Fold each of these.
Amino acid sequence: MINSWAEEFWRVIGLLGLAVLFGSIFDHIAIALVLVLGGYLIWYLRNLRRLEVWLRNRRSSLPPPSLGIWEVIFTELYRSQKRHQKRQRRIVQLLSRFREVTEAMPDWVVVMRADGEVEWWNEIAGRLFGLNYPADVGQRLTNLVRNPGLHEFFQRGDSNEFYHFPAPRDQEKNISVRITPYGNDQSLLIARDV
């Protein structure tokens, strides 16, 4: 990139030198300098416009061709876009695997923020706790599952403790719940039919 700036600097110096040379031949140095600098400014603004249009529509297009520093800018932005797309695909794959794993688990899994707001749950937890996507995302689990003992259990916040109570949607099932803190102020509720 530094080399590209040096090339651009010398390109401008070369253009100014040519302007001075032709201007001195025709005895109009100022006009030649204005024409050269005006042409350079038009080229510069044209590339800025192409950059702006490409950034708005670049999801599926190659960068516009150009010269000098503009070629470097377009190429680097295009590479950055491709790296970002690759990372996004990887994140989607990881999330897909995470969901597959949690769906295969016999346990009920609910991912919550530290304050007990629900972020995600597996299908079995959704059915047995009666959670509805997307309406219940961001709601406190203790507001969605009405059980005073569960509320007290949350308040204690002891990750080594288990709480047992009848399943909210199936009173014949008795479930055991444990909350494990993890990550950045998050917790994982794991429930099991006992």
Amino acid sequence: FDDFETGAGDWVADNANRGREPATLWEIGSPDPSVPGGPAASFSGSNCFGTNLAALTGLEVLVSLTSPVIDLTGQTAATLNFAQFRDIEPGFDFGRIRILDADNGDALIENLEELIDDRSDWETYSKDLPPSALGKNIKFQFYYETDDFVGVLFPGWYIDDFEVTVPSR
């Protein structure tokens, strides 16, 4: 479980292709309630991760946020849970949740979600992991991409209260 209240920890933001102005970064902190359409606050506590906490997302963005290693060796079932707020241009911009193999150079195991877009206030996301992710050391990657349509900017994607659960034995 990570509620991000103690900082980024071992989470890694790849903001190399942060796009055109305003540049878009995965960043940790408190959302700015003055961003039009964005969240007024984190889901819980003070901090969350978001694609620009104080501005709308920019154009031509390809950024990702990768979790620390999660040890699922010996596990036959697991569930990903987190809170998300999203305001992403439907049909043009999107988020994706990738499962990476931490023992194999972060190779892609599978996309858990292919297309996250549209708008929702804070909501809880929960999904069982596929068999391909079980019995391994994995990472999750939250990937965010925007198009190049000038004048069409959105608040983006925010994540809080990340947790992976396994059934008790």
Amino acid sequence: MKYLTLAVPCYNSEAYMRRCIDSLLAGGEDVEIIIVNDGSSDATGEIAAEYEKKFPGIVKAVQKENGGHGSGVNVGIQMARGMYFKVVDSDDWLEEQAYRKLLEEIKKKQNEMTDLFVCNYVYNHLEEGSRRTMAYRNIFPKETICGWNEMGHFRPSQYLIMHALVYRTEILRQSGLALPEHTFYVDNIFAYQPLPLVKRILYLDIDLYQYYIGREDQSVNEKVLISRIDQQIRVTKIVAGSVDLNRVKQIYPKLADYMCRNISIMMAISSIHLLLMQSRDAEEKRKKLWQDMKRENPGLYYRLKYTTLSGWTYLPGKLGGMLTVGGYRIARKIYGFQ
């Protein structure tokens, strides 16, 4: 039996993918590692095939045409044989002791049908020699199965991201999750759309996922975010339209509030980066983003506009824009994001 499937989407990852894969091999026969070579032009495919040959029954190498990160995740979900599923980006890795603890808990709880394991993740600024752990101790009870109605309140810097989540594989399939190809930031969809199907959550206070941050070409880099703003907008719209929050609120009001907050953050990010572009075209895109939201989901629009953070990123006039950008710069310094 495979308790956990680890999907590793790779594109031109030869310089760092070994660190990632080597960290996953600590799971031994309990796991399967699906390395998806997404049409790389370097030695990524050869390295993946090398691991498959050396570790048969554990590593599977998939060679495919380029389709983007979401395409790699889709392939992993389709092929997964593990009870649980996790995505590990090829420049990141898992901490060994935390990884072993996760597998131990999966085995112990396999008959209790836990739908979602939540673990801490760590931002590693290797060039600066600094690290920052993001935990959920104030939100979920430790090592106790709970539901959405029992969770606490998220702080401004806290939200569930792909790196913190280990879904039961069947939950992902039931949710109909199919990430768009050739699109960045699809991890936001992965960390959002399946949540209403989750009934049983187990939080492990372990620093499992080690997230490398700081490369100039990284998708969370501000300059890169601005250059890919159309993809950010596309993902924001997909997330906003993927779940009926009114239905969720009837069953899980706390989850509905969190999910609305999640959309608010995404709207804020899109709005702020469009402001930073300082062009007429960007301003038109910002107006259209909000107009489309008002037309397609008026209830959500009014909530975002008047009761959440994102409303402050759509203030009228030049002064409103200056206030928004100023607030964004302060938040960057406080929370340490790029």
Amino acid sequence: MKKIELLAPAGDLEKLKIAIAYGADAVYFGGEDFSLRSSAGSLSVEDMAEGVEYAHKHNCKAYLAINIFAHNEDIDKIPNFLDRIADVPIDAFIFSDPGVYRIIKEKRPDAELHLSTQANNTNYETAKFWHSLGVSRIVTAREMSLKELSELDAEMPEDMEIEVFVHGAMCISYSGRCLLSNFMTSRDANRGMCAHPCRWNYALMEEKRPGEYYPVEEDERGTYVFNSKDLCMIEHIPELIESGALSAKIEGRMKTIFYLATVVRAYRTAIDSYYADPENFTFKPEWLEELSKVSNRHFTTGFFFDKPDEDAQNYESSAYIRDYDFIGIVRDYDAESGMVLVEQRNNFRVGDELEIFGPGSTDFINYTVSEMYDADSGEKIEVAPHAQQRILLPADFELKPNYMLRRSNKR
């Protein structure tokens, strides 16, 4: 049995390395242009070269998304971009636009090609069409059920792979093909600049009664009719694997390293547990509990089992649920002094009760801050208020780089 790939987003070089440290088999990223995320979630050519080298050094694959729907002004720029990355050994290119496909084939004729979910592939005949043109993987539309995935797998050529999104934000529009952002803010979602108007609060106004707003649903907190809950399939790893999917994809190139580490770690643990003993595999509630410790909009299984109903929407608020704060990341540990070097990411102080976690499992360590020191001055301090302040904490156990500290904000 070929093991399903765990594919993680890499919005920048640090996120790429964190995803790999926490167990990703492959990472996907965009360049500064031509991917469906703004430049804030992309890699420069130099970072791309370093990131791909780092990924390969750690037996991890690296995929580049050039998955915008290109306009005429984009077309002339794409060949130049491909020339600039000609020496970067990208493992596969993710595309959605047939014109972009042609350019990649001309510039990189031997490149591995993956069809983006943006191309809304929902049937095996479309998959066969793209296979005949040299595409080796289909990232299926998020509107497909597990039953449809199994049917797709049965009908496709053996060397055609299926990749499915298993965790992250869901788009209100079919396969992400949305015009709301373009219409309301002149930011084109299909060219990487979505303003997420589906998360906004809406009301009804009758044309002869301007200024009189009527809620679409009675609720004093607002009406978020397009606001989908987040996809989460960690409770259904066996069904995903049995459907024929060979890559499980996590959404979130714009998310934090804390989010990325937590989500990748939980799915890594669940997938490895399944393959260790498929017949006796049992879902562990703590895996879902871990996912609840990062920002989310509650969870849904999307279209995998049935068409989503009213329970798949969050009508109360478009805000994320944030029950835990990311406090810091471990940079070093000195066994001789028993001090751990932490880079602060949120204000914390002596007396705080924290949880510390790292790669390998969903276990964590409970830790109370008994004392702390400014790493640069050596002075004893009571609070770490400065962004990315370097802090020394005592620890009678080894903590490796990239371990993370979090704090519950529930009282």
